[in-house]
Amino acid sequence: MTDQSALAALAASLSHARVLCAGDVMLDRFVYGSVDRISPEGPIPVLRVRREDAMLGGAGNVVRNLVGLGAKASFFTCVGDDAPGREVAHLIDALPGVDPVLCVDAGRQTTIKTRFVAGNQQLLRADDETLAPVTDLTLDRLTAAASDQMQGAGALVLSDYGKGVLPEGVTARLIEVARARGVPVVVDPKGADWSRYRGATVVTPNRKELAEASGLPTDDTDSITAAARKLIETCGIETILVTRSQEGMTLVGPDAEPAHLPAQAREVFDVSGAGDTVVATVAAALAAGASLVDAAALANVAASIVVGKVGTAAVHAEELLHTLRRQDLEADEAKVLTLPQALERVGKWRARGLSVGFTNGCFDLLHPGHVSLLAQAKAGCDRLIVGLNSDASVKRLKGETRPVQSEAARATVLGSLASVDMVVIFGEDTPLEMIRALRPDVLVKGADYTVETVVGADVVQAYGGRVMLANLQDGFSTTATIARIGDR
Predict the structure, then answer these.
(1) Average pLDDT over residues 252-267
(2) Residue 403: is the preceding peptide bond cis (ω within 30°)?
């Protein structure tokens, strides 16, 4: 999996991306207030209105997210000849870095979705819309304009809300032109017939949309993968990225193992528009040259930010970078790691020119002798790793009554010491394999050993590392401490 620092570098590069977006725009209205009583006219809450907001919704929210991420966007859509349509035009004009082709269809109504919200709870949504197809003349103009601007684009987004801007013929034509020019196509789908998206690079359904299109259950990871692969095979789609709400995302291709991305949101206030954020982030990342796996990982982080906001929210580049850097710091602060995690972090340390030390032991009851050894070990390197014998390993070495403390407890105590930068538990009797994997610059043991008897000394010295023997404090021993406790 891509580490957070690499994703941060990707997020910073999104300002170089140029994305075309075609789809159904709408006006999202939010009526905020509080509920203090139930209506005497019926069993419904009475909303005392405090304020109202309006923002771009549907494909418009995809463009809002693209702009927020720093990308440049060309936007192809249609509104009615009405006041909401003019409000949509004004909101689009206010977005920096957007080149709009906004067609006006006099025979239709601009779509409005009005949400009534009390506190953080949405009470009701009212939709005002025309479901009739956009006129052929308008569609021809949009398709021609999008095709003309395809050259030089990094990605194409088709944001399909089923409101008439993306009928089958228009969708097929845009995908055909994009693929001919090597432009990846990201589709936010609508309806059960995905054959209309044939040739798309990635389609981004939620779990319900996937079930509807495939006719298969989507209850767990295996069923989601099976449903996605059926659609890939039957509809000619390259990849499907399934958004799974609190369970994260799953990226499924035709051959490789699916990539499962756990959800990262700490608090969820409103999922309105989260799918738009995913589509925009994936498209911007692909336009910046990222792989689909990295694009999906970045979109997963972006979605975790936007669901923590109220309303049809967009994510901003600064928020994304802040979140990624915070996660990177939190990962660096975690001290108890598996060996694969340790290898990844050691690689980062070495990339910064830091020297790595290693020592090991059971550390069953931590005493001043241990503290002194670890302090001396840390003084001999920039970062100190402690290899900790597992419970089973301690039992084999020390007998059936040991360890006194579990490996989790021992690791936690060691990790609390400022001198210790990492703890890795190993199950073998010696840490030899861990030493071979980590290749420490300094190998540390107590002075009751000689260099020749230190496990791994020959390995470390062979590649130019050194062995350090730390001075021991007399009078401290876990075995003796346990014996004294038993005598009382």
Answers:
(1) 78
(2) yes
